[in-house]
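hey
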């Protein structure tokens, strides 16, 4: 590419020295790269700066805005369009070319979803459950919603698994990102344990079907159906391994589907635990009221 893509890349980091170099190199065709770091204690910042990224530190105060929305509000952008990339993700050459083509003319949409190819057990999964995230958008037309999730156990500083709100139309790009985390399987399950704390809290509050969140119509319908299902963990496995042909990815496809089922099993039992604690907390008040009556 002779001309750099006029999109500001925002990379979220905290102790990502294993991943950050390959991530930054994958976005070298973009004309502005921010690394928003959360007080890393490893070599993340040093590596990022050596590769030409603009490093900005972020210290969360436990309130809104969280990290992605804070970045929208505070970074000194040179461009109107932003692309969010996690440190364990890589923008593929095909996706770079597609984004460049979108930016060469006036974009017909204000936001674009991107799909992801996951590397699991050192294998690129071509089947199974596919993740899509709205990561490319006009920063003047989008924002991340406050999800009333600050009370979730093990809360962290980055917005959870939901999409930003975009004013205007959104579309899905054809090419994908590559999700390749160099951390161990231990870290994969540790993150899912934390994420399931968050999801249990917001599901219990009925917040995962927020109509303000931008979604493709088909995806919004799928989420609505999934949210109404009992035993989501069983459906998650069947959907990923059989309906989405995860078995074609061999043993890695099976374990990925099973891990997804375990995640939703965690969410369900954590929701049960939260209900129990809520009932226990309200019981003394009810007993006291009955005694006075």
């Amino acid at each position: 590419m002779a001309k750099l893509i006029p999109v500001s890349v925002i990379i979220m980091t905290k102790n990502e020295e294993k991943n950050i170099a390959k991530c930054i190199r994958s976005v070298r065709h973009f004309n502005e790269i921010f690394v928003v770091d959360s007080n890393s204690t490893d070599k993340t910042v040093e590596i990022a700066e050596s590769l030409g990224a603009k490093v900005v530190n972020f210290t969360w105060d436990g309130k809104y805005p969280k990290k992605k929305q804070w970045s929208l509000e505070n970074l000194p952008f040179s461009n109107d369009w932003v692309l969010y990339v996690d440190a364990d993700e890589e923008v593929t050459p095909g996706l770079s070319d597609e984004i460049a083509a979108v930016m060469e003319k006036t974009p017909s949409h204000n936001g674009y979803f991107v799909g992801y190819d996951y590397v699991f057990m050192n294998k690129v999964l071509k089947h199974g459950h596919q993740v899509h995230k709205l990561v490319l958008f006009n920063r003047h037309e989008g924002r991340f919603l406050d999800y009333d999730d600050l009370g979730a156990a093990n809360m962290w500083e980055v917005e959870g698994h939901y999409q930003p709100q975009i004013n205007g139309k959104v579309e899905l790009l054809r090419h994908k990102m590559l999700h390749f985390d160099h951390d161990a399987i231990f870290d994969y399950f540790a993150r899912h344990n934390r994420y399931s704390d968050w999801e249990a809290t917001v599901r219990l509050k009925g917040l995962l079907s927020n109509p303000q969140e931008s979604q493709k119509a088909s995806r919004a319908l799928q989420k609505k159906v999934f949210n109404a299902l009992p035993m989501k963990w069983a459906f998650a496995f069947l959907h990923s391994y059989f309906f989405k042909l995860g078995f074609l990815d061999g043993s890695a496809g099976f374990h990925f589907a099973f891990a997804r089922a375990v995640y939703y099993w965690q969410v369900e039992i954590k929701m049960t635990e939260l209900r129990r604690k809520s009932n226990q907390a309200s019981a003394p008040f009810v007993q006291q009221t009955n005694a006075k009556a």
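The mean pLDDT is 91. The radius of gyration is 20 Å.
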